[in-house]
Amino acid sequence: MTETDPIAYDVVVLGAGPVGENVADRTRAAGLSTAIVESELVGGECSYWACIPSKALLRPVIARADARRVPGVGQAAGGSLDVPAVLAHRDAMVSGWQDDGQVAWLDGIGADLYRGHGRLAGPRRVTVTGPGGEDHVLTARHAVAVCTGSGAQLPDLPGLAEVRPWTSREATSEKYVPERLIVVGGGVVAAEMATAWRALGSRVTVLVRGKGLLTRMEPFAGELVTEALTEAGADVRTGTSVESVRREGDTVVVVTDTGDRLEADEILFATGRTPRTEDIGLDTVGLEPGSWLTVDDTLRVTGSDWLYAVGDVNHRALLTHQGKYQARIAGSVIAARAAQVPLLETDAWGAHAATADHAALPQVVFTDPEAASAGLSLAEAERAGRRVRAVDVDLSSAAGANLYADGYRGRARMVVDLDSETLLGVTFVGPGVGELIHSASVAVAGEVPISRLWHAVPSFPTISEVWLRLLEAYRG
Fold it and tell me: Which residues are CB-neighbours of 234 under 8 A, at least 6 positions away?
């Protein structure tokens, strides 16, 4: 192993996923020299094993489901999916798991890429162990940004390694369709991958330890998604935990806490995420290896004046779009502090404060039906001590919904702060609502008064007419 002389940069970024790329983009745009370190593929989890491949798998599923609900098209869309074509499209969307295009983008912005494992080696110092065992020592004049993301969390079950379980990575990159698939979990990954693989031909059984799917959203979201999965042929079992798992030849055998014995060809554990901070040298700067990193609203790690944690690693919002939002804030903050510009806008909604991941967090679950939300649920708002009112309407009350799909099924809820008469949260569940949620994000983030929303006229006949139905229901 050889070690090079230290190379000085203004900023060093650990992790070249979408979050790290956005930090590097902002710091380079500000004229700061920036190094970015990546041990796997440039583009990260989202590009190759999460957002992009999962949505590539789900898009044909949802398109076929939508088409089946349109009179005059349903019969033509009634056949099975072309599985090889779906998987080939997925592979194309991830560039065959090659990162040449994203490396070229980094070159284009002038960031220096170091391939290898990066570790902190004391304040403002990073050591990168390259593929050939060589070490590069990088120093940062102004900031080191930890953007290493999160990985799948597996339960502590005896013999689990021998079972070779799927995680979200295998679920989005697998090359064949298992005849039988068990999905363990009740969150977004579990719901989406159960939807995708059931449509691709697997007999899917979903084991949910809690009361239902998507419990962080309004209750009706999980209820409608569960109903649709069941109608599609999936077996969704709530209040069920895995007691043991083993592989007998090519078969996975699962025993549940209810005493049931289940068999499958593969098993997917979608049971949470853990920070990728175990081996990045946190101990050299007084932090706990493997921990989530606590930050302020400028994304700077508590107690530090140079270390930033952006994206999943700070555990504020484990969503790519929120991580990129944080990255834009962090990059601007680092540049301002490097230029010794006072941060005058660190209050709520200021240019240098990441507040949307507290108040206006948007999310879309790409199941059939889609579930989308922005801001707080009713339960979250009540726990926060807000004086609120929930307004519920059937989405089919919007004229555009019934044009979109025959027999359209969906629900909408807005949570109104009764003291300010602004929206704290909005949830839509139904076909096509993913493209509707940004209007809710704007209303929540902008704290738009109900009196003004009344004058934001939805186009007829679109699903967005549901806004009029919600406001009418609120006014009574």
Answer: 194, 198, 204, 205, 206
Give the CATH number of the domain where residue 160 resides. 3.50.50.60
Residue-by-residue DSSP string for 11-25: EEEE--SHHHHHHHH
**Considering its fold, how many domains does the chain have in total?**
3
Consecutive 10-residue runs of the chain (476 residues): their mean pLDDT?
Answer: 80 98 98 98 97 98 94 82 97 98 98 98 98 94 98 93 96 98 98 98 97 97 98 97 95 95 98 97 98 96 97 96 96 95 71 80 97 97 97 96 95 98 98 96 96 96 97 94
Q: Is residue 59 part of a domain?
A: no
Inter-residue contact 258 to 240 (CB < 8 Å): yes
Whole-structure pTM value? 0.94
First to last CA, the chain: 74
Final residue in a domain of this structure, among 211, 236, 271 = 271
Asked if residue 210 is part of any domain, the answer here is yes
Is residue 73 domain-resident?
no
Q: Measured between alpha carbons, how far is 258 from 412 in angstroms, rounded to an integer?
A: 35
Q: In the chain, helix, strand, coil percent, each to 5?
A: 35, 25, 40
DSSP three-state, residue 290 = coil
**Exposed, middle or buried, 151 (CB in 10 Å: 0-12/13-18/19+)?**
middle
Q: In sequence order, what are the beta bridge partners of 60?
A: none
